[in-house]
Amino acid sequence: MSAKKRILFIANEMSPYLELTEFSEIVNKLAIKANDNNFEVRCIMPRFGIINERRHRLHEVVRLSGMNIIIDDDDYPLIIKVASLPGMRLQVYFLDNEEFFKRKFMFHDEDGTPFEDNEDRMIFFCKGVIETIRKFGWPADYIHCLGWMTALIPFYLKTAYKNDPILNKFKIIYTPYKEDISGFFTSEFINKASINNLEPEDLKPFIKNKEVTLIESALAFTDGIIIGSEELDESISKAIKKLKGVAVLPYVGPDEMQKAYIDFYQKLLGE
Question: H-helix or E-strand containing 250?
């Protein structure tokens, strides 16, 4: 490629900051590989309480912080922090809020029970990402979302912000992989997830048989899908097969993964 393309990775986790599943290392390697292949790269993830700020040298970005995110008519301050990936000139941004991310457990309490506000935390993160992108002044060519906490972002960009000159130029990629999010959502999800000019009615694609079908519904608002696990939930696999006009990269093993992903990005822009 001649001019550098820009890619923004948005993920639940990323090594070395948070290592819960194999995808933390995959996101790390993808970001480095893209950087080495003449992409400009930035990353965004939640600032979970188990991330050691001192060790990883996180510091607040004052010019980006200070916004409030509205969920169910309540305001929650959005704090944005940044660190550089060790040994790289590659910035990772962390979205923080004391009420949602201060705790020392991820999505379940010490007894293994899902937190009652997991859907609020996810909605806060997705809405916060949108506002952060608007403030960046760094128009990306691609946004690659990985993990359930990012699943509303493609929907928001393709609906509520489809006419926004800053937010309507991305190629949006989503990577579904094997995750257990059972017990995370309530009947209030579509009311809380409303944003901008959208009403709860507009979020009905995310409800089927009174259940939240988060990943299955998110896929329909993407330009490309990269399958991240050898096995997916059957409902997600079926949803992918039904899609038309969306490029799909089948699962590839770890040895070929990085090159396959980079090739996929380039093909999406017709390069």
Answer: none
